[in-house]
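Try this one yourself first.
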């Protein structure tokens, strides 16, 4: 097998695995663990939040490690850290040790995906990097479909959540070995900046924006707030959906199916939205995605029927895929290709606040005995985000959306070129 094909295989396998075993399936395992160990729902939500917080805080680590030890050992280290977190989770009885476990899972996730693999694919496939990265994200997202079903099978057949964590620790080590064998750097990482903005394209002209100037625009602030709301609701939904559907009276199995349906819809929506954004205004798609998510939360809040709750999960996943991808396309359109990497990183950093969602939802459930008040609050938040996008989200003056090739400086009469757009993937 050619080396670039081996790299693609290892990178996609790693992303599939970390997606399947962390965010999308943790909610199912927590449902079983909370019942057996007597933890509060708020404590369970905090463990989920620590997973997301660790991912955000550890995000600067991959470029640094890639420079010092190489991409292959960076991904291998991520798998071993992940395996350590799983192993600790398989042995715990104390909540504090589980917090350590989920923190290690978050760090391992960040080291294994997606930053190192995206760099690998961009350098191993210079002519088709966009296409290969698209395949990579599609395969990785499909881990969210498989994860809850895998957990449901292991826990359902054995009744032992500890065995699940132990199996995942072994599998993570095996994935690390695959990365060790298959992954090689096509281009040695000489600096941290080399890893940033690796989309294989260079703008033909300097952008009119600087990072500092772009951060001060109303457009960016609104997009960052909307992305934070979306991420908060998505993270919270992953942590509570199984428990909420189980409370409707048919056990946890339908919740696992709903989680897989949510991930399947989100994966499909992201794949379609990239192409749609090339023909239609991404702002309208963003608004539509927020409205769909708000409607899904309203359905989950109001329905006592498991089948309708599962349909709401599909609706939510579709809206999530539409909103998340279109927001990234808008950042690219508004601020140009030259700053796309930096601005996306800034927006993603802001979404770290989303880790408060699972804790808040758990606290509400502890106080009221149900997640429905939290679901209603999430619906209101998403509707407010859609309203802000309708009323206030516009392309900033001088953006690529407003100018096709040049930005006329009204104060000086000078003409500045704007960065060339990169087609949305």
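Now uncover the answer:
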């Amino acid at each position: 097998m050619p080396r670039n094909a081996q790299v693609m295989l290892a990178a996609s396998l790693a992303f599939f695995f970390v997606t399947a075993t962390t965010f999308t399936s943790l909610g199912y395992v927590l449902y079983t663990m909370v019942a057996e160990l007597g933890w509060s729902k708020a404590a369970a939500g905090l463990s989920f939040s620590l997973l997301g917080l660790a991912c955000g805080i550890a995000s600067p680590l991959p470029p640094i490690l890639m420079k010092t030890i190489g991409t292959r050992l960076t991904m291998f280290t991520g798998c071993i850290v992940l395996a350590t977190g799983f192993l600790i989770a398989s042995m715990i009885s104390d909540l504090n040790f589980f917090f350590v476990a989920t923190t290690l899972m978050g760090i391992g996730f960040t080291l294994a995906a997606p930053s190192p693999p995206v760099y690998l694919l961009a350098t191993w496939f210079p002519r088709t990097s966009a296409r290969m990265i698209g395949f990579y994200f599609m395969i990785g997202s499909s881990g969210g479909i498989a994860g809850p079903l895998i957990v449901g099978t292991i826990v359902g057949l054995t009744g032992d959540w500890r065995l699940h964590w132990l199996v995942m620790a072994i599998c993570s080590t095996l994935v690390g070995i695959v990365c060790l064998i298959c992954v090689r750097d096509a281009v040695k990482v000489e600096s941290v900046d080399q890893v940033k903005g690796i989309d294989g394209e260079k703008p033909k002209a300097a952008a009119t924006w600087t990072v500092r100037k772009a951060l001060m625009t109303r457009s960016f602030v609104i997009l960052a707030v909307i992305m934070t709301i979306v991420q908060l609701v998505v993270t919270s939904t992953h942590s509570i959906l199984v428990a909420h559907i189980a409370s409707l009276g048919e056990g946890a199995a339908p919740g696992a199916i709903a989680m897989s349906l949510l991930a399947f819809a989100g994966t499909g929506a992201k794949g379609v939205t990239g192409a749609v954004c090339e023909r239609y205004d991404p702002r309208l798609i963003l608004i539509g995605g927020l409205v769909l998510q708000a409607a899904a939360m309203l359905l989950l809040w109001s329905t006592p029927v498991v089948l309708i709750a599962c349909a709401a999960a599909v609706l939510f996943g579709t809206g999530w895929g539409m909103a998340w991808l279109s927001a990234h396309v808008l950042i690219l359109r508004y601020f140009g290709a030259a700053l796309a990497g930096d601005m996306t990183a800034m927006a993603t950093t802001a979404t770290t606040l989303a880790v408060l969602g699972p804790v808040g939802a758990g606290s509400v459930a502890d106080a009221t005995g149900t997640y429905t008040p939290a679901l209603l609050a999430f619906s209101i938040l998403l509707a407010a985000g859609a309203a802000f996008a309708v009323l206030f989200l516009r392309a900033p003056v001088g953006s690529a959306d407003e100018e096709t090739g040049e930005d006329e400086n009204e104060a000086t009469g000078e003409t500045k070129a704007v960065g060339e757009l990169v087609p949305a993937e």
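Discussion: Residues 199-207, 403-425 have pLDDT under 50 and may be disordered. The chain has two domains: 1-200, 202-402+412-425.
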